[in-house]
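Dear Dr. L.,

I hope this message finds you well. Following up on our conversation about the binding site, I have prepared a predicted three-dimensional model of the protein together with phenylalanine. For your records, I am including the exact sequence and ligand specification that went into the calculation, followed by the structure tokens. Please feel free to forward this to your student if that is useful.
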Amino acid sequence: MTTQQQVKPTLWAGRWGFVLAATGSAVGLGNIWKFPYMTGEYGGAAFVLVYLMCIVALGVPIMMAEIVFGRRGRGSPVDALKRLARESQRSELWSLVGWVAMLCGFLILCFYVVVAGWAFSYVWKTLSGGLGLPSVEAYGALFEATNSNVWTLGGWSTLVTVLTMVIVGRGVQEGIEKSVNWMMPGLVLLLAIMIVYAAFSGGFKEGVNFLFAFDFSKISSEALLAGLGHAFFTLSLASGAILTYGAYLPAGRSIAQTTLLVAFCDTVVALMAGLAIFPIIFANGMDPSSGPGLIFMSLPLAFDQMPFGSIFALVFFVMLSLAALTSSISMVEATISFLETHTPYTRGRLSIGVGFVLWIISLFAVMSFNVGADWKALGMTVFDWLDYITSRWMMPLGGLMTAILAGYIFNADSLRDEIGLTGMAWRLWRFLLRYVTPVCIIMIFLDALGWFTLDLSHQWYWIVAIIAALALLGETLSRRHAAG
Ligand code: PHE
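The resulting structure of the complex is given below.
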């Protein structure tokens, strides 16, 4: 069956279809909820620096590779990688990387619906006059209360699950992705207004310093792994999302330009969210490392103090919810597209089945905040585990494998043909994937496993030396191989 699969008929409509969909996937709760709270948890600027370096040196080249794989292989991650392996006369076992990615996207969605549920519930709180509390403590208590009731929290996450599966099942993603068209400028404008507000809040300087006073010596092992994982998470990499969307990309679009555009939008939104949030946190004497509730405790307070605050709050939480949906639909697309090719069922039916499994697992993530708060392994709840396993291990590992596939396994001529890069640009992309990405990811892993401690302020030249030595060796060997 797999040998005879046809090219997917569904291609993105219009010139901007893919860009909108990929931006919709990338920009989400990762930027506005996760980035600020992780920055707070891992000490501010040190984390931001790791994150930015990982986006540029690892995230961008890997995103390009995923789009290339998707468009060349025209199918779900498993099918696309199989086809590429066959084309390159390599073992079809490489498609295992696709299986892991698909699973990763699915597992992320299991906890993502809970966070998206928070966003939805704050839309409701704004509408029903539940905000307007006097202090950060009061908002902290409200966030606790939202979580403590398993039925309400479960209700909201169920709503998100149903909405996601209905959109995916009816194949109407395109409609919702079009919302990215006005949502992105809207989000940027709203964040800009909030930054202006934050500039007058009294904590701006402290906030900016916290985010941008880079200091290599403050980078901890945890911050390294967390920053690496978050770079992949925020760009939707190694989870089947971008690869599967790439499968619907028409030939002739520049993959490099598209990637740069998506990564740029994604980074801008995250940094703006940080700039809007941290000044408020410092001005109100909040602890930046308050964890996942950070934005739900700090932002409502800022809205309360702004003129027309409740309107801003409403618009903000609606946009956050929409941004979450344009991401959540991309997380199951790989699974649905895989099942669509390998089972006789329709999209609609498959979404019901997949949605059901998802819903069951997501309920455990919901219970992590209330009845199951004590169900812990190594100090982590189900929610924490889902996040930890996917962001810290599956995504960086998937990214590493993607780099290896693109750099060493798949036929270089096919890749070059597909990506359409020439000269320096092509060589730079190859170099990043063959040497920079693997060395950096492996080093961060070894550091996280405690094999050694990476101290970037003193050892960065070691990394450069290792990359250079490997590059020299690798290129000489492959030249010999080609000549011999
Ligand atoms: N990039 C999304 C965000 O920042 C999350 C995501 C991860 C989406 C993996 C798809 C796949 O919210």
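In brief: The CA atoms of residues 142 and 297 lie 8 Å apart.

With kind regards,
A. P.
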